[in-house]
Amino acid sequence: MNKRTIILLVAIFGCIALFFVFNKDNTNTLNSNEKDFGFKSTDKIDKIFITNIANREFAILTKTGKNEWRLNDKFDASTSQVDVLLETLRKLQVKKPVSKDVLDGVIKQMVIRGTKVEIYENGAISKVFYVGGNTADDLGTYFYMDKASEPYICHIPGFNGFLSSRFYTNQSAWRSKNVFKSTEEEIAEIKVQWISEPNASYVIDNSGKEPLIISGNRTFKNNTEANLNKIKSYLKSWENLCYEGFPIDLDAHKIDSIAHSKPYVILSLTDKSGKSTKLTIFLKGLKADSYQQTDDHGNPMEFELENFYAFVNDNQTEIVQIQDYVFGKVMKRTGDFMMSEKPSSK
What we know:
By secondary structure, this protein is α+β, with helices and mostly antiparallel strands. It contains seven helices and 19 strands. A nine-stranded antiparallel β-sheet has the order 4-3-2-1-6-7-8-9-5, sandwiched between helices. Strands 14-13-12-11-16-17-18-19 form an eight-stranded antiparallel β-sheet.
């Protein structure tokens, strides 16, 4: 966030504080416009802007298609996270006004740490409100509608908890962790490159009537050389593959070192619209807290078996961690698809 934006936000929150001070003696009568935080339907919502003056972060969620959202025009947003926010907006209700004995404290905290939320419907701004802290019993959250006379305590009926944590600005938390999400019918080609095992590398061509596996410039015949059922089952495995998160113990120097080291395997998927996604995977060195320290024979291991490091597409500055539990099912070798050969071991 640039300096000008920060100054503007400070001014906005300052105005809110002054407005509260001069209007705090008003009677606590609920006004229909001041308490209308929720939405009967969220179908028309196509943009949500959330910003917080304390941490100087912001999140802009923009709807790009049915159940598809972008974050800050840079990343895919997590559909499940956005759904939680939309559900909150549908169910949000005023519980009661803020009592006068805590009003000053609520105002102070909202000015210092409050979160501004702008909701747009069909491209036009619909509502602007501010989310503050939580009540002492954590069963309500302070909300203030823009230009209202006072803040209110809001909740979701039947939900025993607070709502401030649902209006966050952390980009990593909003981002989709999905790397590959194509269905079998959407996949045009799969390419798996084992860097140290070229004979284990292959391409699956799914553009024709039946998928074909190609390795070493050889196309294997289905049901005589390659097992067609295994290939089809494999294609179904690419529909929902997500990374675990971002390693917090790697600085820029370590990430650069990994990026310039030898990859373990490279997974590539091209869908039938022509969009390609690549995941370059690296072995993760064993650490003191690694789950498994020795192999089946009791020998010390050099690398972890359950986790890997990876880069998505050509971004070599941002590293993710993936799990073998998730990606192991697509990290196959040529022999795994053959009719007469036993599956290869990792």
